[in-house]
Write the structure tokens for this entry.
Amino acid sequence: MLLMNKEILLKDLNIKDYKETWDYQTYLLQEIVDTKINNRKSNFQVTTKNHFLFVEHPHVYTLGKSGDLSNLLLTEKQLEEKGATFYKINRGGDITYHGPGQIVGYPILDLENFFTDIHKYLRLLEEAIILTLAEYGLKGARSKGETGVWLDVGSPFARKICALGIRSSRWVTMHGFALNVNVNLGYFDHIIPCGIKGKAVTSMEAELNKKIDLEEVKKKILTHFKTLFEVEKFIAL
């Protein structure tokens, strides 16, 4: 019986191109998957790694595998004028925006080290954000059938503050969450966010009327993530 590894290697990529980061995630995921495949073939068992990446991306729109391209409201030329790029990618969900002032978290976990339940995984990701927002006096909540974290759910003023979209292969996850902290919300005007019409997007800065310390928010996210996932420790790289 292979021991569960509940340590997570933590890396902050700071500001990094979306495609480069996607490639890096794919590399880390494949490394874990390869270890699992080799373990099944061998008598010598190797513990799988877990990773957690923090990153801010330059302006970029990404469309999930089940997304509708018509939810992007810009032409190629307009994208160029906005200094933004666009990628159709392999996560779940529809279209979203990433940009400076947004905390993007990519947990690349072997869920067999924690629990094998994708639904639970998504709910715990949401919970880590909900608990973080609560520390700033913001009441985040889930909206039925709409993955992510929202404010004022069930009211005409419902607005999304954190998007979620993941992919998993052999119980190894990639992609993750994007929490709007000090992000320029104007970039969301050029998409139908997550393909959901008539719902607004917000940020911590917009709600609290002040700039928020990104490093402080990251620490709070990790504290809640550690508790919820029963992480033994984060090892900063």
The mean pLDDT is 94. The chain has five helices and twelve strands. Residues 18-41 form the longest helix (24 residues). Helices lie at 18-41, 76-81, 118-134, 204-208, 214-228.
